[in-house]
């Protein structure tokens, strides 16, 4: 007999972006491990990104409960539709570029909606689920955030019903980069910290996506913490033809702070110094790109080499990964981003294309790339070695020998990761 597991999440198809992928895949494979997932999601969410192609991955027999949500972003759009949309995506301008409207919206978002703008969903959802859980004899609940307000639903259910509760953190809470940009008062900062500690101290099991986050949370709670990373799945796609140009492709958002001048400078120099490079080179940017990044590319005279694709469906992004000569992974150079392992990393690793990553020294991404032999990782001071590696890849491209040689990827398959999850249930 399968064990019923209630999964409470904000992001669910037709939501696009990386936030939806993790639990869409866990839910897909949980029935293979004697679990019956039941998914609880908002009925009328204000998703910043839509990808209807993901709806085809939801099993027809899966029980999905939808419950209404009221979100302030809908009202905020009356003042500035553009700023409301970008803030809801986590895209925040640099302080010196912020308008008064954006500053006000950030202050209100950070201090009046704690822990986040979906907090209004907590009380009505808890009231509904208290009855539903009892009527359906559910013993285990999983919450996944961000948004971390979802964890508050789990906290209330745990206290009132004594059910087993697993709290899954796809990102940290109070140490994530954008948290520091919310113009929080000291009282608001204290409230965030208090809520974070309550969740971490009351969940029966905490799940995180990186070892760095695990170490951080171990300083707050003595509850058991398990690392279950994101991963890759078997993607059904037509055979793709490799790009004829020497394409470097970045899949996903390139925000203002994720702007690697070190890389742009190297590419500009290679165009000037290496025969044939300027005729072969193309930079594919697949996803949202900030104006700051585009301006930097222009400053390095790279604009004519940029193919700005914009946001595409998940299926299309996989095609771009497989046909590109090189895949770029860029992270902000910060202590706070060492724990960030982009979901796309694992799809990159099974695309059979070499990865070039730039980020903070000592990150989890660096460890995974070395462990799987899927690419090279550089911090922001390693200009010479980064240039050397790109040039080596270019020579391999010219000799038609450019490819990756991965090892030990199977443990990152979504089914293997779901098996690890099932053992915690």
UniProtKB/TrEMBL annotation:
Alphabetical list of SUPFAM superfamilies matching this protein: UDP-Glycosyltransferase/glycogen phosphorylase (SSF53756)
Q: Which CDD domains match?
A: GT4_WbuB-like
Chain coiled-coil ranges: none
Cited InterPro entries: Glyco_trans_4-like_N
The Glycosyltransferase subfamily 4-like N-terminal domain sits at 110-235
**Name this polypeptide is given:** Glycosyltransferase family 4 protein
Q: Which organism is it from?
A: Hyunsoonleella rubra
């Amino acid at each position: 007999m399968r064990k019923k597991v209630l999964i409470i999440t904000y992001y669910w198809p037709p939501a696009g972006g990386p936030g939806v992928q993790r639990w869409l895949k866990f839910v897909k494979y949980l029935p293979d491990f004697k679990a019956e997932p039941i998914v609880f999601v908002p009925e009328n969410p204000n998703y910043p990104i839509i990808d209807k192609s993901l709806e085809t991955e939801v099993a027809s027999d899966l029980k999905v409960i939808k419950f209404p949500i009221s979100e302030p972003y809908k009202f905020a759009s009356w003042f500035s539709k553009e700023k409301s949309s970008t803030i809801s995506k986590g895209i925040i301008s640099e302080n010196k570029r912020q308008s008064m409207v954006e500053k006000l919206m950030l202050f209100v978002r950070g201090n009046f909606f704690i822990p986040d703008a979906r907090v209004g969903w907590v009380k009505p959802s808890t009231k509904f689920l208290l009855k539903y859980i009892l009527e359906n004899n559910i013993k285990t609940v999983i919450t996944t955030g961000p948004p971390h307000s979802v964890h508050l639903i789990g906290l209330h259910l745990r206290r009132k019903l004594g059910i087993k509760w697993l709290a899954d953190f796809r990102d940290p809470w109070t140490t994530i980069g954008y948290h520091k940009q919310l113009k929080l008062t000291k009282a608001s900062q204290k409230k965030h910290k208090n809520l974070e500690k309550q969740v971490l101290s009351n969940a029966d099991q905490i799940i995180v996506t990186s070892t760095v986050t695990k170490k951080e949370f171990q300083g707050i709670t003595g509850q058991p913490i398990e690392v279950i990373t994101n991963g890759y799945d078997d993607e059904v796609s037509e055979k793709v033809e490799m790009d004829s140009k020497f394409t470097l492709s970045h899949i996903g958002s390139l925000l203002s702070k994720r702007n690697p001048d070190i890389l742009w400078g190297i590419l500009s120099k290679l165009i000037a110094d290496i025969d044939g490079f300027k005729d072969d080179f193309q930079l594919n940017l697949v996803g949202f790109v900030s104006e700051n990044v585009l301006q930097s590319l222009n400053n390095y005279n790279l604009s004519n080499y940029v193919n700005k694709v914009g946001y595409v469906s998940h299926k299309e992004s996989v095609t771009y990964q497989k046909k590109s000569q090189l895949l770029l992974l860029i992270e902000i150079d910060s202590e706070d981003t060492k724990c960030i392992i982009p979901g796309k990393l694992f799809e990159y690793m099974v695309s059979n294309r070499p990865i070039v990553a730039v980020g903070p020294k000592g990150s989890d991404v660096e460890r995974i790339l070395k462990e799987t032999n899927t690419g090279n990782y550089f911090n922001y001071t390693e200009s010479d070695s980064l240039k050397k590696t790109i040039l080596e890849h270019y020579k391999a491209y010219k000799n038609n020998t450019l490819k990756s040689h991965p090892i030990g990827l199977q443990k990152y398959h979504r089914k293997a990761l779901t098996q690890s999850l099932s053992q915690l249930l």
